[in-house]
Amino acid sequence: MTRLAIVTGSTRTHRRGAAVADWVLTTGRKAAPEGVELELVDLADFALPVLDEPAPAAWGIYAHEHTRRWSEAIAAFDGYVFVTPEYNHGVPGPLKNAIDYLYAEWHHKAVGFVGYGVEGGVRAVEQLRQIAAELKLADVGTQVALNTYTDFDYTGVDLGDPAATGVFAPAERHADGLATLLEEVTVWSRALATVRARTDRELTATAS
User: Fold this and answer.
1) In degrees rounded to 5, what are phi and psi of residue 118?
2) Closest to 3 in 3D by CA, of 67, 73, 80
3) Is the pTM of this model over 0.90?
4) Start and end of every NADPH-dependent FMN reductase-like domain (predicted)?
């Protein structure tokens, strides 16, 4: 079984990310390759403060329970799909903060990106690709870019209301893009399993 986490990258109260992540989960479960298990990992459920660990994440020594809980959640997966908005031309703070809490837990796994925003979240995704490279995450080429104008329905919505996120109504073509993304993430996650196993053996041998 290949386990993929759908990581919801926004924690804002009135966010579009929850609806997008739910769509990735339900649509993805129909389209994912055989033997793939998808699970939501919502940053809002972890309530991570601004990075407060005394030691660098690369040391793998965690002083706080919230970090250990986050570490256990992320380490359990073979690959990831980040669902990210674009804030001010870049990665949202909560997602970058959550990524920086960990290090080895990300290594030798695959990641794909579903972005959303007025430009489809593409600039946030480009930044995430640079971050992924440093964390030894294999990022796949296919990405899903959702537009907050055309992929959300605002019929009857009071746009003066700060909670007016609209109803998520993605174009049909995005389902095909998501299927391709999940196929690529699965292929790379499975290919990298041998690298993860070898790394684990080397660490065990060093420790003994």
Assistant:
1) -65, -20
2) 80
3) yes
4) 3-150
Cβ(66)–Cβ(97) under 8 Å? no
Pick the CATH number of 2-207 from 3.40.50.10320, 3.40.50.300, 1.10.10.10, 3.40.50.360: 3.40.50.360
If we measure between CA atoms, which residue out of 36, 30, 38 comes closest to residue 8? 38
The full set of domain ranges for the chain reads 2-207
Reported as a single tens digit per residue, the pLDDT across 39-95 is 999 999 999 999 999 999 999 999 999 999 999 999 999 999 999 999 999 999 999
| 115, 40 Cβ separation under 8 angstroms | no
Q: How many CB atoms lie within 10 A of CB 117?
A: 21
Distances (CA, A) of 54 to 58, 59, 62, 113: 12, 10, 8, 30
Q: Is 45 within 8 Å of 79 (Cβ atoms)?
A: no
Rounded to whole angstroms, the Cα distance separating 139 from 80 reads: 9
CB 64 within 8 A of CB 97: no
User: How many residues in the chain?
Assistant: 208
Which token pair is 123? 């600039």
